Amino acid sequence: MLEQFELALGSSTSEIDLSAGSSYPSVFAVSDLAQASIASAAGALGALISEHTGTSGRITVDRDLSSAWFLASIRPQGWTLPSPWDAIAGDYATADGWIKVHTNAPHHRARAIEVLGVREDRDAVAAAVLEWQGDELETAIVEAGGAAAAMKSLGAWKVHPQARAVAQDPLLFFDDADASLLPIDQFGDVQRPLAGIKIVDLTRVLAGPVATRLLAGWGAEVLRIDPPDWDEPGIVPEVTLGKRCARLDLRSKIGLEQCAHLLSEADIVVSGYRSDALDRLGLGAEQRQAIRPGLVDVSLDAYGWSGPWARRRGFDSLVQMSAGIAHAGMVAAGSPVPVPLPVQALDHATGYLLAAAAISGLTHRLKTGRGSRWRTSLASMARVLVGAGVDDQGLANDGSGITNVSPLRLVEKTAWGDALRLPPPVDVTGAPLRWSLAARPLGSDPAAWRYP
What we know:
The chain is α/β, with parallel strands linked by helices. The chain contains 18 helices and 16 strands.
């Protein structure tokens, strides 16, 4: 699986040591994906260090820790994380199968409830959903501005027009961009290789925040920007480690101007909005390069960048339903209900690939003095996972090594209370992962770069 990431990045990570360990109980190779995706980011960092300093070190990726980070890296001490799932969100039986309705965002919940014409009550929603054909309800909710996915089999997805479009796309798009105006000596040293690198984080749950969390761990200054009314309380303590978090209303002239000012001094931007969202705000890819020539521009989309669903709202759990993953798990388990992956593996793996792309973009800038654009999708990552094959015995894995990994003894003093973090899943000799800022709520900081 690592070879596919190497091919996507155009670089070799043959010096990486992948340790042995446990596997998640799944019909798909989730633990292989975890270890390979994290290895791809570490390999990209090793290539940057080598290009910048002429030195190279050993890279080791722990399999059990990689798998554990795909579940949760934080362990609250004396407090609890709220559920990341809304009370209405989940799988519902339709007249002809199953559908997942994603309602974690209040506006998505409102759109689904409007389509179904019921009160916000799970039993009422279930009764209403049962009257619909799955594909018809999916279309109705999506067209109303909500988020949902009818369950498909692997075979049904393979012949779907969107799957065919994704199959023609590379795992990772790369485009050379304008000449850089940034000095190449702005990079950090071997121990903190991304020190001095400024990253604008325009992402939400979960892939983009995973990417920028990793980049912060190698020294980058990450400034996450969220809308005034956005929150994801069940996820924020997990993903804001190492970052500062501000709010801007990009629909307002002042907010858009402030964001453009931040971009004008940034090295990297990571965005997870739908593919046309920033274009409509006047911050499309061409505008971003004009604001900051030499920018490393990394973007994520759910269902891919071409095909009829290119601009469709999507999340990991929805892509699993669309792409046949939940159905394959259900068949293998002999279950009457969908069986998704044991973790949000598409999100996490895509996040580490985004981080690898961002680092590779810095290496490209160091070599050529030019910026770059990188794009990937959750649907492309699903293709990688499914392409590795189905293991009907995979559900028998006990994953004991994953659940028994030990947290660090050092306490992270988060804004919610003390917590423990898992040890880093990867070791790059001479460049340890460490975060200088504890997790914090969204909107904790001003929308400005911090200067020495």
